[in-house]
Every structure is written in C-alpha cells, then in structure tokens.
Design a protein that fits this description.
The chain has helices at residues 2-7, 52-59, 102-109, 126-132, 166-176, 200-210, 227-252, 258-267, 272-292, 317-320, 329-333, 361-373; strands at 8-15, 20-24, 63-68, 115-120, 135-138, 158-163, 191-194, 221-222, 298-302, 337-343, 349-355. The protein folds into 2 domains: 2-176, Amidase signature (AS) enzymes (Alpha-Beta Complex), CATH 3.90.1300.10; 191-373, Alpha-Beta Complex (Amidase signature (AS) enzymes). An 11-stranded mixed beta sheet has the order 1-3-2-4-6-5-10-11-9-7-8, with helices on both faces. It has 12 helices and 11 strands.
Length: 374
C-alpha cells in the first residue's frame, strides 16, 4: 500500500472499462487543483475542465484510476518529493525512480495500471522510464495537445505515455492521439548509431540489444557533435520558461520545497543573451538531427550515460547532473524519442533511445516492437 500511495497520489475512477491509466499531477482533471506535486498549489482553484489529453483517453474508452506523483513543479530529475512522498522504484528500490514523471513510471512498473501519462521537458518521461525499466515515448513536439498542462507555455514540453510493453505503448498512443496510425514493419529498420561517451556497462548493454539489428549488415555510426551544446542550451530554455511560470511561487516561498525554490530563483537570472544563444544552438542542432535521419529510420543511442544512482548517492548533485545528457537535446530539437528498457550485466537499469523524424512517432513505436520481439 505504501508503494501505491507514493506512486498514485489520488485514487480516481473516471471513464469506461478499457485500459487503466494514471495521469501526472501537472495535467488538469476537472474539479481538482492541478498542484504539480507542490504544497504551494494545494489550495489553488480546481480545474474547470479536463486537459485535452484527459478528454481524449476518456473518449477512447480508457479508465483513469488515479493521479500520478511527480518531482515538485516538474523541476528535478530524482523524483524525490518530500511533500507527497517519494515513489518506490519497484525493481530497484534502493535507486531513484527518476523525475519528473516519477509516479507515472513507478505505477506502470509496479503493475498498478496498463499505461500512464507523463510530461517531458528535458527527459522527464524517458529518464524515469529508464530508471524503472519500462517503455516510454516523448512524442514529436506539439503532436499531443498541452492544453490543460502545467506550465501552460513551453517550447520544449511534451505529453507522452509509459507502458510495460512496446505493444501497449503503441496502444496508449492510439488512445491519446486520434491521428496516430500504428505501423507494422515489413523488414528490419535502418538505424544509425550515435557514438557517445557512456559507462562501459551501458555501452555493453546497448551492443547486446542491437546485435540482432546488425545481423544483416553493419550499422552506420557517427557522432552528433552538437549534442553537448544542445544539452546546455536546453537547460537555458528550461530555466527561462520554468522561472516565467513559477517565480511567483518561489518568491512567495509558501509551501514550496527549499531545493526547488532555490533552483527557480537561480533560473530567473537567465539572461536574454543566453536565451538568444540557446535558440541559435536549437536551429543548428535541429538541422543536424534532420540530416542524420535523411537515409535511416531512426537514430539510436543510450538513454542515460550511467546507471541511475541510489537514493543516497542522489543527495550529491554531481551524481544527478549527467542523467539527461542524451535526453534533453531532443526536447530542444523537438524530435520524437522513445526508450526501450535494458538491463546491464550487473543487473542495473539502462535504456536504448530511438530518435526519429518529426511526425514519425508511429514508426518509432513499430521499431520498438521489433526490437522487443528479438
């Protein structure tokens, strides 16, 4: 019960008898305050209507059974939440569940629901999916309506699903997005591997997972030189947009966690010049990713460079900083990105990340199903 309580903050029963799901607390459900995991929003006005994505899944016959826990105000990577409790990582309980969509990932990993909905501004779907060993998709930016999500304005944030299987991930997308048309692969996909610096155990897990994909020939490999610049630029944009949404809560300092408050106040110091430079990086990086996708179906790289830290290790910021190095760049570019869970030889969580052309979300899901079938 404690695990369920920490993953699901409010039990609900909305909708039909179809697939069950939980919805991250920063997505509006009518009649309830959208508190985004923060005591500072506990007494805010209840939402007048459901978020668009909530309406979509209800119309598709799904049943919402609860609201999912999250890192406060979606501004953190560990999933630790002193106000609502920290969700337990079901398979690796000594390790962080990941953030910010911690409850969405742990609820699926624990088998509490068929799928879940989270949000991803800088890795907040794909990182907890990796930590908890489940499948997850950050769709193409703008594909799924953000109306009713918090913060209201973002040039990075995407709403997407978690599931225990690639097939269920595809089903989740068909219910969240009426325009989603599932694909069936008739032949092996063409993949290009992006060479990155990762821990040997992570690289080895990726090598093993891709062995079947390489059976018909060598997989082209290259470096994506702008990856680190895009990682840093993404943080600049996140800081500017998060401060714009929540600086008033940080200034009021009522009910907000000290760590999140400090991060928001620091983010508010982001300059216009820094933002302009980050937008320049965005343009160049987006073009670079598009170019690498011209002759392949998807790019492939690890989702994280290291295994998730333990809860104790995560007290040290240096253990947390690298976790979104390979994730955040694709928020900046807006390309769809999907995580296939892996396990290292030592039995720790890792992930294979697929990145596709904008709008090719269905192809990414089909590739994930193909990989999972091998």
């Amino acid at each position: 019960m404690q695990r369920e309580a920490c993953s699901i903050t409010t039990a609900l029963s909305l909708g039909d008898r179809g697939p069950t799901l939980v919805v991250k607390e920063c997505i509006a459900i009518a009649g309830m305050p959208t508190r985004s995991g923060s005591a500072s929003l506990e007494t805010s006005q209840p939402a007048a209507c459901h978020a668009d994505v909530v309406e979509a899944v209800l119309e598709a016959g799904c049943r919402i059974i609860g609201r999912a826990n999250m890192h406060e105000l979606a501004f953190g990577m560990t999933g630790v939440n002193a106000y609502l409790g920290t969700p337990i990582n079901p398979r690796w309980p000594d390790r962080i569940p990941g953030g910010s969509s911690s409850g969405s990932a742990t609820a699926v990993a624990a088998g509490l629901c068929d799928f879940s909905i989270g949000t991803d501004t800088g890795g907040s779907i794909r990182q907890p999916a990796t930590c908890c060993g489940v499948f997850a998709l950050k769709p193409t930016f703008g594909r799924i309506s953000r109306i009713g999500a918090m913060p209201a304005a973002s040039s990075l944030d995407c709403i997407g699903p978690f599931a225990r299987s690639a097939a269920m991930l595809t089903q989740a997308m068909t219910r969240m997005d009426r325009t989603f048309d599932p694909r069936l692969l008739r032949h092996a996909p063409k993949l290009r591997r992006i060479d990155v610096e990762a821990a040997p155990a992570i690289t080895s897990a990726l090598d093993i997972a891709l062995a079947a994909a390489c059976a018909s020939g060598a997989m082209p490999r290259t470096r994506l030189e702008g990856l680190e610049d895009a990682y840093r630029a993404g943080l600049v944009i996140i800081n500017r947009e998060t401060a714009a949404a929540f600086e008033h809560l940080a200034i009021a300092a009522t009910g907000i966690g000290a760590d999140v408050r400090a991060r928001i106040l620091a983010a508010a110091k982001t300059t216009d010049a820094e933002v302009a430079e980050a937008e320049c990086v965005r343009r160049h990086f987006c073009a670079d990713v598009d170019r690498l996708l011209e002759d392949v179906d998807a790019l492939v790289l690890p989702s994280m460079p290291v295994a998730p830290p333990t809860l104790e290790e995560a007290r040290d910021p240096s253990a947390v900083l690298p976790l979104t190095r390979f994730l955040r760049p694709f928020n900046l570019s807006g390309h769809p990105s999907l995580v296939v869970p892996l396990v290292t030889a030592e039995g720790l969580p890792a992930g294979l990340q697929l990145v596709g052309r904008k709008g090719d979300d269905a192809l990414l899901c089909a590739i994930a199903e193909w990989l999972a079938a091998d």
